[in-house]
User: Which sequence fits this backbone?
Protein backbone atom coordinates (compact mmCIF):
# COMPACT_ATOMS: atom_id res chain seq x y z
CA UNK A 1 0.00 0.00 0.00
CA UNK A 2 2.62 2.57 1.09
CA UNK A 3 5.02 1.53 -1.65
CA UNK A 4 2.40 2.29 -4.31
CA UNK A 5 1.63 5.82 -3.11
CA UNK A 6 3.36 7.36 -6.14
CA UNK A 7 1.24 5.24 -8.48
CA UNK A 8 -1.91 6.52 -6.76
CA UNK A 9 -0.65 10.10 -6.95
CA UNK A 10 -0.07 9.70 -10.68
CA UNK A 11 -3.33 7.87 -11.43
CA UNK A 12 -5.85 10.09 -9.63
CA UNK A 13 -5.69 12.77 -12.37
CA UNK A 14 -6.24 10.03 -14.97
CA UNK A 15 -9.34 8.80 -13.12
CA UNK A 16 -10.61 12.37 -13.05
CA UNK A 17 -10.07 12.72 -16.81
CA UNK A 18 -11.96 9.47 -17.52
CA UNK A 19 -14.90 10.57 -15.36
CA UNK A 20 -14.99 13.99 -17.04
CA UNK A 21 -15.10 12.41 -20.50
CA UNK A 22 -18.31 10.59 -19.56
CA UNK A 23 -19.92 13.54 -17.75
CA UNK A 24 -22.52 15.58 -19.72
CA UNK A 25 -21.12 19.00 -20.65
CA UNK A 26 -24.17 20.77 -19.18
CA UNK A 27 -23.40 19.59 -15.63
CA UNK A 28 -20.80 22.24 -14.94
CA UNK A 29 -20.80 21.99 -11.15
CA UNK A 30 -20.42 18.20 -11.23
CA UNK A 31 -17.50 18.43 -13.64
CA UNK A 32 -15.75 21.00 -11.46
CA UNK A 33 -16.26 18.85 -8.38
CA UNK A 34 -14.87 15.77 -10.17
CA UNK A 35 -11.75 17.64 -11.28
CA UNK A 36 -11.22 19.25 -7.87
CA UNK A 37 -11.73 15.96 -6.03
CA UNK A 38 -9.29 13.99 -8.21
CA UNK A 39 -6.65 16.74 -7.93
CA UNK A 40 -7.19 16.96 -4.15
CA UNK A 41 -6.83 13.18 -3.78
CA UNK A 42 -3.55 13.39 -5.67
CA UNK A 43 -2.39 16.08 -3.23
CA UNK A 44 -3.49 13.94 -0.28
CA UNK A 45 -1.44 10.95 -1.46
CA UNK A 46 1.58 13.19 -2.03
CA UNK A 47 1.23 14.37 1.58
CA UNK A 48 1.28 10.70 2.61
CA UNK A 49 4.47 10.27 0.59
CA UNK A 50 6.01 13.07 2.66
CA UNK A 51 4.61 11.55 5.86
CA UNK A 52 6.19 8.15 5.19
CA UNK A 53 9.39 9.64 3.73
CA UNK A 54 12.55 8.60 5.63
CA UNK A 55 14.74 11.66 6.13
CA UNK A 56 17.80 9.57 6.96
CA UNK A 57 17.86 7.94 3.49
CA UNK A 58 19.52 9.75 0.60
CA UNK A 59 18.52 7.32 -2.14
CA UNK A 60 15.18 7.03 -3.93
CA UNK A 61 12.15 5.86 -1.98
CA UNK A 62 8.71 4.49 -2.96
CA UNK A 63 10.35 3.02 -6.06
CA UNK A 64 7.96 1.30 -8.47
CA UNK A 65 9.29 -0.45 -11.57
CA UNK A 66 7.02 -1.29 -14.49
CA UNK A 67 8.50 -2.90 -17.60
CA UNK A 68 7.90 -0.80 -20.70
CA UNK A 69 10.49 -1.84 -23.33
CA UNK A 70 12.46 -4.46 -21.37
CA UNK A 71 14.31 -5.66 -24.48
CA UNK A 72 15.81 -2.16 -24.79
CA UNK A 73 16.37 -1.62 -21.05
CA UNK A 74 13.82 1.21 -21.01
CA UNK A 75 11.49 0.84 -18.05
CA UNK A 76 8.83 2.95 -16.36
CA UNK A 77 10.42 3.58 -12.97
CA UNK A 78 8.96 5.96 -10.38
CA UNK A 79 10.66 7.17 -7.22
CA UNK A 80 11.27 10.26 -5.10
CA UNK A 81 14.14 11.53 -3.00
CA UNK A 82 14.59 14.70 -0.98
CA UNK A 83 15.23 16.71 -4.16
CA UNK A 84 12.03 15.78 -6.00
CA UNK A 85 9.73 15.40 -2.98
CA UNK A 86 8.80 19.05 -2.57
CA UNK A 87 8.49 19.68 -6.30
CA UNK A 88 5.90 16.90 -6.25
CA UNK A 89 4.09 18.45 -3.28
CA UNK A 90 4.15 21.90 -4.88
CA UNK A 91 2.61 20.53 -8.09
CA UNK A 92 -0.20 18.64 -6.40
CA UNK A 93 -0.99 21.63 -4.14
CA UNK A 94 -1.19 24.24 -6.91
CA UNK A 95 -3.38 22.27 -9.33
CA UNK A 96 -6.42 22.25 -6.96
CA UNK A 97 -5.81 25.96 -6.27
CA UNK A 98 -5.80 26.63 -10.02
CA UNK A 99 -9.12 24.82 -10.38
CA UNK A 100 -10.58 26.82 -7.49
CA UNK A 101 -9.41 30.16 -8.84
CA UNK A 102 -11.11 29.37 -12.17
CA UNK A 103 -14.35 28.26 -10.50
CA UNK A 104 -16.34 31.28 -11.74
CA UNK A 105 -14.02 32.95 -14.24
CA UNK A 106 -13.96 30.22 -16.91
CA UNK A 107 -17.30 29.78 -18.68
CA UNK A 108 -16.34 28.57 -22.16
CA UNK A 109 -15.27 24.97 -22.88
CA UNK A 110 -15.26 24.16 -19.17
CA UNK A 111 -14.85 20.40 -19.60
CA UNK A 112 -11.84 20.84 -21.88
CA UNK A 113 -10.31 23.35 -19.45
CA UNK A 114 -10.60 20.94 -16.52
CA UNK A 115 -9.21 18.05 -18.57
CA UNK A 116 -6.25 20.22 -19.68
CA UNK A 117 -5.32 20.92 -16.05
CA UNK A 118 -5.62 17.28 -15.01
CA UNK A 119 -3.47 16.22 -17.98
CA UNK A 120 -0.96 18.87 -16.94
CA UNK A 121 -1.06 17.50 -13.39
CA UNK A 122 -0.31 13.99 -14.67
CA UNK A 123 2.63 15.08 -16.82
CA UNK A 124 4.16 17.25 -14.09
CA UNK A 125 3.97 14.48 -11.49
CA UNK A 126 5.58 12.12 -13.99
CA UNK A 127 8.35 14.62 -14.75
CA UNK A 128 9.37 14.91 -11.09
CA UNK A 129 9.05 11.20 -10.25
CA UNK A 130 10.21 9.22 -13.28
CA UNK A 131 13.69 7.69 -13.02
CA UNK A 132 14.40 7.02 -16.68
CA UNK A 133 16.04 9.73 -18.78
CA UNK A 134 14.05 9.03 -21.97
CA UNK A 135 10.74 8.92 -20.11
CA UNK A 136 11.72 12.11 -18.29
CA UNK A 137 12.14 13.78 -21.68
CA UNK A 138 8.71 12.53 -22.81
CA UNK A 139 6.98 13.88 -19.70
CA UNK A 140 9.12 17.04 -19.77
CA UNK A 141 8.00 17.89 -23.30
CA UNK A 142 4.41 16.66 -22.93
CA UNK A 143 3.83 19.41 -20.36
CA UNK A 144 3.93 21.89 -23.25
CA UNK A 145 0.76 20.54 -24.90
CA UNK A 146 -1.86 21.30 -22.21
CA UNK A 147 -0.13 24.56 -21.29
CA UNK A 148 -0.13 25.64 -24.95
CA UNK A 149 -3.89 25.04 -25.07
CA UNK A 150 -4.54 26.78 -21.74
CA UNK A 151 -2.82 29.96 -22.92
CA UNK A 152 -4.13 29.87 -26.50
CA UNK A 153 -7.79 29.01 -25.79
CA UNK A 154 -8.53 30.49 -22.37
CA UNK A 155 -6.10 33.43 -22.49
CA UNK A 156 -7.47 36.83 -21.62
CA UNK A 157 -6.47 39.06 -24.52
CA UNK A 158 -6.10 39.22 -28.29
CA UNK A 159 -2.38 38.28 -28.30
CA UNK A 160 -3.00 34.92 -26.61
CA UNK A 161 -2.37 32.87 -29.77
CA UNK A 162 0.97 34.58 -30.36
CA UNK A 163 1.93 34.13 -26.69
CA UNK A 164 1.07 30.41 -26.79
CA UNK A 165 3.28 29.92 -29.84
CA UNK A 166 6.06 31.92 -28.17
CA UNK A 167 5.87 29.60 -25.18
CA UNK A 168 5.66 26.42 -27.24
CA UNK A 169 8.40 27.14 -29.77
CA UNK A 170 10.94 28.66 -27.39
CA UNK A 171 10.72 25.75 -24.95
CA UNK A 172 10.30 22.98 -27.56
CA UNK A 173 13.18 24.03 -29.81
CA UNK A 174 15.44 24.38 -26.80
CA UNK A 175 14.75 20.78 -25.84
CA UNK A 176 15.17 19.09 -29.23
CA UNK A 177 18.96 19.12 -28.95
CA UNK A 178 18.68 17.40 -25.56
CA UNK A 179 16.91 14.49 -27.27
CA UNK A 180 19.97 13.99 -29.49
CA UNK A 181 22.16 13.68 -26.39
CA UNK A 182 19.71 11.22 -24.81
CA UNK A 183 19.85 9.04 -27.95
CA UNK A 184 23.66 9.20 -27.87
CA UNK A 185 23.65 8.19 -24.18
CA UNK A 186 21.42 5.21 -25.01
CA UNK A 187 23.76 4.14 -27.81
CA UNK A 188 26.77 4.31 -25.48
CA UNK A 189 25.34 2.89 -22.25
CA UNK A 190 22.59 0.65 -23.61
CA UNK A 191 19.96 2.04 -21.21
CA UNK A 192 18.48 5.33 -20.05
CA UNK A 193 17.90 4.16 -16.48
CA UNK A 194 18.90 7.08 -14.26
CA UNK A 195 20.65 5.14 -11.48
CA UNK A 196 22.62 3.14 -14.05
CA UNK A 197 23.74 6.35 -15.79
CA UNK A 198 25.11 7.69 -12.51
CA UNK A 199 27.68 4.88 -12.53
CA UNK A 200 28.80 5.49 -16.11
CA UNK A 201 31.75 7.78 -16.78
CA UNK A 202 31.62 9.92 -19.91
CA UNK A 203 34.77 11.47 -21.38
CA UNK A 204 35.47 15.17 -20.88
CA UNK A 205 34.51 16.14 -24.44
CA UNK A 206 31.33 14.03 -24.28
CA UNK A 207 30.35 15.70 -21.01
CA UNK A 208 30.90 19.20 -22.39
CA UNK A 209 28.88 18.65 -25.56
CA UNK A 210 26.00 16.90 -23.81
CA UNK A 211 26.02 19.40 -20.93
CA UNK A 212 25.52 22.22 -23.44
CA UNK A 213 22.52 20.48 -25.01
CA UNK A 214 20.95 19.90 -21.61
CA UNK A 215 21.75 23.49 -20.64
CA UNK A 216 19.88 24.88 -23.65
CA UNK A 217 16.83 22.77 -22.77
CA UNK A 218 16.76 23.67 -19.08
CA UNK A 219 17.78 27.33 -19.49
CA UNK A 220 14.79 27.96 -21.76
CA UNK A 221 12.51 26.64 -19.02
CA UNK A 222 13.99 28.66 -16.11
CA UNK A 223 14.18 30.97 -18.19
CA UNK A 224 17.64 32.49 -18.52
CA UNK A 225 18.77 35.24 -20.85
CA UNK A 226 18.48 35.45 -23.83
CA UNK A 227 15.69 32.85 -24.10
CA UNK A 228 13.42 34.56 -21.57
CA UNK A 229 11.19 36.58 -23.90
CA UNK A 230 8.42 33.99 -23.97
CA UNK A 231 7.69 34.26 -20.24
CA UNK A 232 6.35 37.84 -19.94
CA UNK A 233 4.20 37.27 -23.05
CA UNK A 234 2.86 33.96 -21.75
CA UNK A 235 2.08 35.38 -18.30
CA UNK A 236 0.32 38.47 -19.62
CA UNK A 237 -1.94 36.52 -21.97
CA UNK A 238 -2.56 33.40 -19.84
CA UNK A 239 -5.63 33.10 -17.59
CA UNK A 240 -4.97 33.50 -13.87
CA UNK A 241 -4.81 29.73 -13.31
CA UNK A 242 -2.35 29.41 -16.20
CA UNK A 243 -0.07 32.07 -14.72
CA UNK A 244 -0.21 30.40 -11.29
CA UNK A 245 0.90 26.99 -12.54
CA UNK A 246 3.39 28.54 -14.97
CA UNK A 247 5.17 30.53 -12.25
CA UNK A 248 4.62 28.00 -9.49
CA UNK A 249 5.73 24.78 -11.18
CA UNK A 250 6.70 25.02 -14.87
CA UNK A 251 9.66 27.34 -14.19
CA UNK A 252 10.93 24.74 -11.70
CA UNK A 253 11.33 22.17 -14.49
CA UNK A 254 14.55 23.90 -15.52
CA UNK A 255 16.07 24.11 -12.05
CA UNK A 256 15.02 20.52 -11.30
CA UNK A 257 16.65 19.39 -14.55
CA UNK A 258 19.94 21.06 -13.64
CA UNK A 259 19.97 19.47 -10.18
CA UNK A 260 18.78 16.03 -11.25
CA UNK A 261 20.65 15.55 -14.53
CA UNK A 262 23.22 18.19 -15.50
CA UNK A 263 25.21 18.13 -12.26
CA UNK A 264 25.43 14.39 -11.46
CA UNK A 265 25.67 13.08 -15.06
CA UNK A 266 28.21 15.67 -16.26
CA UNK A 267 30.09 16.89 -13.15
CA UNK A 268 33.33 17.93 -14.91
CA UNK A 269 31.44 19.90 -17.55
CA UNK A 270 29.33 21.55 -14.84
CA UNK A 271 32.47 22.85 -13.14
CA UNK A 272 33.95 23.88 -16.51
CA UNK A 273 30.94 25.95 -17.57
CA UNK A 274 30.26 27.53 -14.17
CA UNK A 275 31.71 30.97 -15.18
CA UNK A 276 29.34 31.01 -18.16
CA UNK A 277 26.35 30.15 -15.96
CA UNK A 278 27.31 32.74 -13.36
CA UNK A 279 27.65 35.45 -16.01
CA UNK A 280 24.29 34.75 -17.62
CA UNK A 281 22.53 34.44 -14.25
CA UNK A 282 24.03 37.68 -12.86
CA UNK A 283 23.15 39.66 -15.99
CA UNK A 284 19.67 38.13 -15.91
CA UNK A 285 19.07 39.09 -12.27
CA UNK A 286 20.09 42.73 -12.70
CA UNK A 287 18.58 43.24 -16.18
CA UNK A 288 15.16 41.76 -15.36
CA UNK A 289 15.04 43.53 -11.99
CA UNK A 290 15.51 46.92 -13.63
CA UNK A 291 13.12 45.95 -16.43
CA UNK A 292 10.44 45.11 -13.86
CA UNK A 293 10.61 48.66 -12.46
CA UNK A 294 9.59 50.26 -15.76
CA UNK A 295 6.62 47.97 -16.52
CA UNK A 296 3.03 49.20 -16.31
CA UNK A 297 1.22 45.86 -16.55
CA UNK A 298 0.61 44.13 -13.20
CA UNK A 299 1.38 40.65 -14.59
CA UNK A 300 4.41 41.71 -16.58
CA UNK A 301 6.01 43.15 -13.43
CA UNK A 302 5.64 39.85 -11.55
CA UNK A 303 6.79 37.91 -14.63
CA UNK A 304 10.11 39.77 -14.72
CA UNK A 305 10.57 39.38 -10.97
CA UNK A 306 10.12 35.62 -11.45
CA UNK A 307 12.99 35.56 -13.93
CA UNK A 308 15.23 37.41 -11.46
CA UNK A 309 14.39 35.06 -8.58
CA UNK A 310 14.86 31.91 -10.66
CA UNK A 311 18.26 33.11 -11.90
CA UNK A 312 19.30 33.52 -8.28
CA UNK A 313 18.30 29.88 -7.79
CA UNK A 314 20.68 28.97 -10.62
CA UNK A 315 23.55 30.64 -8.73
CA UNK A 316 22.72 28.48 -5.71
CA UNK A 317 22.68 25.31 -7.81
CA UNK A 318 26.10 26.01 -9.29
CA UNK A 319 27.68 26.75 -5.92
CA UNK A 320 28.25 22.95 -5.72
CA UNK A 321 27.88 22.79 -1.95
CA UNK A 322 25.18 21.63 0.43
CA UNK A 323 24.21 25.08 1.62
CA UNK A 324 23.74 26.55 -1.85
CA UNK A 325 21.92 23.52 -3.26
CA UNK A 326 19.57 23.22 -0.30
CA UNK A 327 18.92 26.96 -0.55
CA UNK A 328 18.17 26.60 -4.27
CA UNK A 329 15.59 23.86 -3.64
CA UNK A 330 14.03 25.78 -0.75
CA UNK A 331 13.93 29.00 -2.78
CA UNK A 332 12.27 27.13 -5.67
CA UNK A 333 9.59 25.96 -3.26
CA UNK A 334 9.29 29.44 -1.78
CA UNK A 335 8.98 31.02 -5.21
CA UNK A 336 6.23 28.51 -6.00
CA UNK A 337 4.26 29.84 -3.03
CA UNK A 338 5.00 33.56 -3.35
CA UNK A 339 4.85 34.03 -7.14
CA UNK A 340 1.69 31.92 -7.38
CA UNK A 341 0.07 34.02 -4.66
CA UNK A 342 1.03 37.26 -6.40
CA UNK A 343 -0.59 36.07 -9.62
CA UNK A 344 -3.70 35.16 -7.61
CA UNK A 345 -3.60 38.70 -6.16
CA UNK A 346 -3.60 40.03 -9.73
CA UNK A 347 -6.41 37.67 -10.69
CA UNK A 348 -8.66 38.95 -7.90
CA UNK A 349 -8.71 42.54 -9.20
CA UNK A 350 -8.68 41.49 -12.87
CA UNK A 351 -11.81 39.36 -12.40
CA UNK A 352 -13.54 42.41 -10.91
CA UNK A 353 -12.29 45.29 -13.06
CA UNK A 354 -10.94 43.61 -16.25
CA UNK A 355 -7.67 45.51 -16.38
CA UNK A 356 -4.11 44.88 -15.20
CA UNK A 357 -2.70 48.35 -15.93
CA UNK A 358 -1.31 49.70 -12.66
CA UNK A 359 -2.34 53.31 -13.27
CA UNK A 360 -6.04 52.38 -13.06
CA UNK A 361 -5.65 51.32 -9.42
CA UNK A 362 -4.92 53.24 -6.25
CA UNK A 363 -6.12 53.68 -2.68
CA UNK A 364 -7.42 50.12 -2.37
CA UNK A 365 -6.28 49.95 1.28
CA UNK A 366 -9.37 51.96 2.27
CA UNK A 367 -11.94 49.83 0.42
CA UNK A 368 -10.33 46.35 0.19
CA UNK A 369 -8.36 46.01 3.48
CA UNK A 370 -8.27 42.19 3.55
CA UNK A 371 -7.04 42.07 -0.04
CA UNK A 372 -4.32 44.64 0.70
CA UNK A 373 -3.25 42.73 3.84
CA UNK A 374 -2.70 39.59 1.75
CA UNK A 375 -0.94 41.63 -0.94
CA UNK A 376 1.34 43.19 1.70
CA UNK A 377 2.26 39.79 3.14
CA UNK A 378 3.37 38.42 -0.22
CA UNK A 379 5.08 41.68 -1.15
CA UNK A 380 7.36 41.48 1.88
CA UNK A 381 7.86 37.77 1.14
CA UNK A 382 8.87 38.69 -2.41
CA UNK A 383 11.59 41.01 -1.09
CA UNK A 384 12.90 38.24 1.22
CA UNK A 385 11.85 39.86 4.48
CA UNK A 386 13.07 37.91 7.56
CA UNK A 387 10.44 35.49 8.76
CA UNK A 388 9.30 34.59 5.25
CA UNK A 389 10.34 31.65 3.10
CA UNK A 390 12.21 33.77 0.55
CA UNK A 391 14.57 35.07 3.22
CA UNK A 392 15.67 31.55 4.18
CA UNK A 393 16.11 30.42 0.58
CA UNK A 394 17.99 33.50 -0.60
CA UNK A 395 20.14 33.63 2.54
CA UNK A 396 21.29 30.01 2.03
CA UNK A 397 21.96 30.66 -1.66
CA UNK A 398 24.09 33.71 -0.92
CA UNK A 399 26.00 31.94 1.86
CA UNK A 400 26.64 28.95 -0.40
CA UNK A 401 27.78 31.09 -3.33
CA UNK A 402 29.97 33.23 -1.05
CA UNK A 403 32.07 30.15 -0.32
CA UNK A 404 32.76 29.83 -4.05
CA UNK A 405 32.71 33.30 -5.60
CA UNK A 406 32.27 36.54 -3.68
CA UNK A 407 31.71 38.61 -6.83
CA UNK A 408 28.69 36.59 -7.95
CA UNK A 409 27.34 36.77 -4.40
CA UNK A 410 27.55 40.57 -4.53
CA UNK A 411 25.78 40.71 -7.90
CA UNK A 412 23.10 38.30 -6.72
CA UNK A 413 22.54 40.36 -3.58
CA UNK A 414 22.18 43.46 -5.77
CA UNK A 415 19.18 41.83 -7.39
CA UNK A 416 17.69 41.20 -3.94
CA UNK A 417 18.04 44.91 -3.13
CA UNK A 418 16.45 45.98 -6.42
CA UNK A 419 13.54 43.59 -5.76
CA UNK A 420 12.68 45.75 -2.77
CA UNK A 421 12.41 48.76 -5.08
CA UNK A 422 9.98 47.30 -7.60
CA UNK A 423 7.93 45.34 -5.04
CA UNK A 424 7.36 48.30 -2.71
CA UNK A 425 6.77 50.64 -5.64
CA UNK A 426 4.05 48.34 -6.96
CA UNK A 427 2.42 47.90 -3.57
CA UNK A 428 2.47 51.64 -2.91
CA UNK A 429 0.78 52.38 -6.24
CA UNK A 430 -1.98 49.83 -5.64
CA UNK A 431 -2.65 50.30 -1.93
CA UNK A 432 -2.25 54.03 -1.33
CA UNK A 433 -3.00 57.31 -3.03
CA UNK A 434 -6.39 58.44 -4.30
CA UNK A 435 -9.15 56.03 -5.26
CA UNK A 436 -9.55 55.99 -9.06
CA UNK A 437 -13.32 56.37 -8.91
CA UNK A 438 -13.32 57.76 -12.45
CA UNK A 439 -12.55 54.20 -13.59
CA UNK A 440 -14.26 52.07 -10.94
CA UNK A 441 -17.33 52.75 -8.81
CA UNK A 442 -17.78 49.46 -6.92
CA UNK A 443 -15.13 47.77 -4.77
CA UNK A 444 -15.44 44.23 -3.38
CA UNK A 445 -13.02 42.71 -0.88
CA UNK A 446 -11.91 39.06 -0.88
CA UNK A 447 -14.68 36.49 -0.93
CA UNK A 448 -14.59 33.33 1.19
CA UNK A 449 -13.42 31.23 -1.80
CA UNK A 450 -10.60 33.66 -2.56
CA UNK A 451 -9.52 33.72 1.10
CA UNK A 452 -9.33 29.90 1.11
CA UNK A 453 -7.08 30.07 -1.98
CA UNK A 454 -4.52 32.22 -0.17
CA UNK A 455 -4.54 30.32 3.13
CA UNK A 456 -2.25 27.35 2.19
CA UNK A 457 0.18 29.69 0.42
CA UNK A 458 0.36 31.98 3.45
CA UNK A 459 0.93 29.01 5.76
CA UNK A 460 3.62 27.53 3.51
CA UNK A 461 5.46 30.85 3.20
CA UNK A 462 5.27 31.48 6.95
CA UNK A 463 6.26 27.96 8.08
CA UNK A 464 9.36 27.84 5.85
CA UNK A 465 10.35 31.29 7.08
CA UNK A 466 9.93 30.42 10.78
CA UNK A 467 11.00 26.77 10.92
CA UNK A 468 12.71 25.70 7.64
CA UNK A 469 14.17 22.54 9.19
CA UNK A 470 10.84 20.79 8.57
CA UNK A 471 11.76 20.90 4.88
CA UNK A 472 15.55 20.93 5.07
CA UNK A 473 15.63 17.71 7.09
CA UNK A 474 14.02 15.86 4.16
CA UNK A 475 16.28 17.52 1.59
CA UNK A 476 19.65 17.18 3.32
CA UNK A 477 20.61 13.53 2.73
CA UNK A 478 19.75 13.60 -0.96
CA UNK A 479 21.70 16.81 -1.50
CA UNK A 480 24.61 15.34 0.43
CA UNK A 481 24.57 12.32 -1.89
CA UNK A 482 24.53 14.64 -4.92
CA UNK A 483 27.53 16.62 -3.65
CA UNK A 484 29.43 13.35 -3.13
CA UNK A 485 28.75 12.46 -6.77
CA UNK A 486 30.13 15.82 -7.86
CA UNK A 487 33.41 15.59 -5.99
CA UNK A 488 34.08 11.87 -5.88
Assistant:
Amino acid sequence: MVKNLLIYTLLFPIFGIVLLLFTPAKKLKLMKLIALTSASLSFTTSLLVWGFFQNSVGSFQFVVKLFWFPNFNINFILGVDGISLFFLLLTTLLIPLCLLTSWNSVSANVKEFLIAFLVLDFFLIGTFCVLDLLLFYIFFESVLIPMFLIIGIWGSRERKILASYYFFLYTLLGSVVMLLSILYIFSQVGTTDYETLLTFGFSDIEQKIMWLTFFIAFASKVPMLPVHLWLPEAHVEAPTAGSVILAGVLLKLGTYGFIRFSLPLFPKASFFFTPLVYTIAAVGIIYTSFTAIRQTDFKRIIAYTSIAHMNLVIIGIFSFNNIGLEGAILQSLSHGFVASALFLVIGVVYDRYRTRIVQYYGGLATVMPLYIAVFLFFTIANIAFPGTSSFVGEFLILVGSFKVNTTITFLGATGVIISGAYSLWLFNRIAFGNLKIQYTQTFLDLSFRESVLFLPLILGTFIIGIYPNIFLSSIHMSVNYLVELLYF
